[in-house]
């Protein structure tokens, strides 16, 4: 599995537009083949700060997502929402069964 954490610091004046845009991105991304989960989390200790937590079956699924029309459309508009550079962290992981 590939786990991605994309950290967003959003311009307060653009936050409502960012959240509206994210609703469509999340819905479309969750329907992609190879998507395990795709969730936007709001920080509890910092204003206007969010993390997209993505889990993908494999690297091929990530690559397909990164070239999807809904993702490339969002990526093209993302800078207008940002108050700081995007911080993306990518991890390889496996589910631990208990």
TrEMBL record:
Pfam families registered for this protein in UniProt? ABM
User: Which UniProt keywords are given for this protein, alphabetically ordered?
Assistant: Monooxygenase, Oxidoreductase
Domain of life of the native organism? Bacteria
Domain ABM as annotated: residue spans: 2-90
Is this entry keyworded Oxidoreductase?
A: yes
Coiled-coil zones: none
SUPFAM superfamilies xref list: Dimeric alpha+beta barrel (SSF54909)
A GO molecular function for this record? monooxygenase activity
Name of the protein in question: Quinol monooxygenase YgiN
Give the source species.
[Bacillus] enclensis
| The organism's taxonomic lineage, starting at the top | Bacteria, Bacillati, Bacillota, Bacilli, Bacillales
